[in-house]
């Protein structure tokens, strides 16, 4: 399907916009599952000022959706109406160190943040090597791995509101809990500041290598996947209840529960977004029927079903 082209209206309302505006741009290429429909408008801002200017001049009635590197995301086959904002590495991917503080743009990969910190002799961010995504997504969902979470290292985050205001939010203001932040969803994170602890670089590198080796051995990272599918139930592991319900290797259309790690769904090559989402719902149904556990999605699902 194709959405009405509204780019001329957007440019008329915000003529000094420097970023790129594309009509009916497929989003499949921007997600790790490689599925999904188009964005009515895909906006890639040049930098934080450009993002703030564009939002300040955008009609409040036009919906805004933000995507990062698309790792923990399903875009439904019907696409997304309104403006989809994608923060690209060119404008939002810088990572720098000042003393014991690491500043990272929202488009910087989490593993790069860990690497830069380690090279600077700053410990405490090694866990980020095991997170398949970018800083913006990690801030939004308090991403974590190997016993640590974003909240354990974050000092503050920068964001732009739907009205185009640039703000700073400290750690306490993020409202972090397990895989969640209470920051309003119409606030777009643009950067995060993290604090590390000085330590020998060799020791940090060894721990990062251990995290990387564990991930490569236990997770289907070379498949078209979206990372961990479901949140861990209280006192349990999602993969364990999925496995116990007999869902390892389960197939719906072109989607499959990974044989390697059954909290991962994979695109076998010809899956639609609907296949992947339907598979996830079937897994949830079987787990609920088998053990009474109500699994919650960790992967974000956005957009409209194909009509």
UniProtKB/TrEMBL annotation:
GO terms for cellular component: cytosol. The active site is at 179, 228 (proton donor), 298. Its cofactor is FAD. PROSITE patterns: FAD_PCMH. It is found in: Cytoplasm. One of its GO terms (biological process) is cell wall organization. GO terms for molecular function: FAD binding; UDP-N-acetylmuramate dehydrogenase activity. Residues 34-215 form the FAD-binding PCMH-type domain. Keywords: Cell cycle, Cell division, Cell shape, Cell wall biogenesis/degradation, Cytoplasm, FAD, Flavoprotein, NADP, Oxidoreductase, Peptidoglycan synthesis. Pathway: Cell wall biogenesis; peptidoglycan biosynthesis. Its EC number is 1.3.1.98. It catalyses: UDP-N-acetyl-alpha-D-muramate + NADP(+) = UDP-N-acetyl-3-O-(1-carboxyvinyl)-alpha-D-glucosamine + NADPH + H(+). Belongs to the MurB family. PANTHER family: UDP-N-ACETYLENOLPYRUVOYLGLUCOSAMINE REDUCTASE (PTHR21071). Cell wall formation. This is UDP-N-acetylenolpyruvoylglucosamine reductase.
């Amino acid at each position: 399907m194709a959405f009405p082209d509204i780019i001329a209206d957007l440019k008329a309302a915000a003529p000094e916009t420097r970023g790129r505006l594309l009509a009916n741009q497929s989003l499949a290429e921007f997600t790790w599952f490689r599925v999904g429909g188009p964005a009515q408008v895909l906006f890639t801002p040049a930098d934080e000022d450009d993002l703030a200017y564009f939002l300040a001049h955008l009609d409040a009635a036009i919906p805004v959706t933000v995507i990062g590197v698309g790792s923990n995301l399903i875009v439904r086959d019907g696409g997304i109406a309104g403006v989809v904002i994608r923060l690209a590495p060119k404008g939002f991917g810088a990572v720098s160190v000042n003393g014991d503080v690491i500043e990272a743009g929202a488009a910087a990969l989490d593993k790069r943040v860990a690497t830069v910190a380690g090279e600077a002799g700053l410990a405490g961010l090694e866990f980020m090597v095991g997170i398949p995504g970018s800083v913006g997504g990690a801030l939004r969902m308090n991403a974590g791995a190997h016993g640590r979470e974003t909240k354990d290292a974050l000092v503050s985050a920068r964001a732009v509101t739907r009205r185009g205001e640039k703000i700073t939010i400290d750690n306490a203001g993020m409202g972090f809990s397990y895989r969640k932040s209470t920051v309003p969803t119409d606030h777009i994170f643009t950067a995060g500041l993290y604090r590390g602890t000085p330590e020998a670089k060799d020791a940090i590198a060894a721990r990062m290598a251990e995290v990387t080796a564990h991930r490569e051995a236990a997770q289907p990272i070379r498949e078209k996947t979206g990372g961990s599918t479901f949140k861990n139930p209280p006192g349990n592991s999602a993969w364990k209840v999925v496995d116990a319900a007999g869902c390892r290797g389960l197939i719906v259309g072109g989607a499959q529960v990974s044989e390697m790690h059954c909290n991962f769904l994979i695109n076998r090559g010809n899956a639609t977004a609907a296949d992947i989402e339907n598979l996830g719902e079937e897994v949830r149904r079987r787990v609920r029927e088998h053990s009474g556990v109500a699994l919650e999605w960790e992967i974000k699902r956005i957009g409209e079903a194909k009509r």
